[in-house]
Task: structure prediction
Amino acid sequence: MEGNYQRLIEFISETCGESVEEIERKIEAKQAKLSGLISKEGAAQVIAAELGVDFDKQVIKISQILPGMRKINLTGKIINLFPVREYNKNGRSGRIASFILADDTSNIRTVLWDENHIDLFVNGKIGQDSVVELSNASIRNGEIHLSSFSEIKLSDKSIEGVIVDRPVFKKTILDFSLNDNVSTRAFIVQMFEPRFFEICPECRKKVVDAECQTHGKVVSEKRALINFVIDDGTDSIRSVMFSDQLDLLLSKEELESPELFAIKKKDLLGKEVIISGQVRKNKLYGNNEFIVSNLDDINLNKLIAELEG
Ligand SMILES: [Zn+2]
Result:
């Protein structure tokens, strides 16, 4: 997110006392030196290290979090608490607790491994809607992780205006990883015929011959999906769009008539779009696919405004 990057530069600037412009110049120089092999965020991290900006013991906002950060401190509100799970993996067993932590800039999944921390939740000392202070936390796979060296405690602060929507990050397809909620600018390079199926109106699961496994005979709803491939120059990914979003791509008539679909498909191939969604594993094939939740035509004015901003 552009805003993240901006806040990060401001953070570096405040910490080391150099101006935002000076830091931006250094980041651009670093990127140029590395022939663009490093992202702006990555270059900012290198510059921060070079300037001696240490994230240790710093209180940061969620939007300032960068991959690989360690020993960070933050305060947030638990907006979604998940049940404690038990795990047994590679001969090690234990409990794991997790929740979504939010502040006024963003939100992030937080995972707890320490038995004493987990007891705070089991005993009800910390729970849904608690404001908590985390210290010595680290970032792994885009999540906050608390080990036994970390601390979590109730905060007496209150947080207003927490961000509850899942943050969407701008990424290139090459950098997509599983479960990412991401947005990219890409071309539609391949498109397959729509597929139709029926679902149960109660549980939204697939039905065969108007019979749901749970609800028996039902008046099923007709649904559709379209698979297509997008490519942004770094890589390509198979994408899928379902009924609720398909009107962003084509009309109902174009969806249902093979002749009209063929014409529309010609129009869509090679089209550049801003597309967002979630990266998921296709259970059948084991590869990653992109579940599309939004698709926007490239709007030049918007893009120019963004580049200028
Ligand atoms: Zn059902």
Summary: Residues 86 and 269 are 47 Å apart (CA to CA). The mean pLDDT is 88.
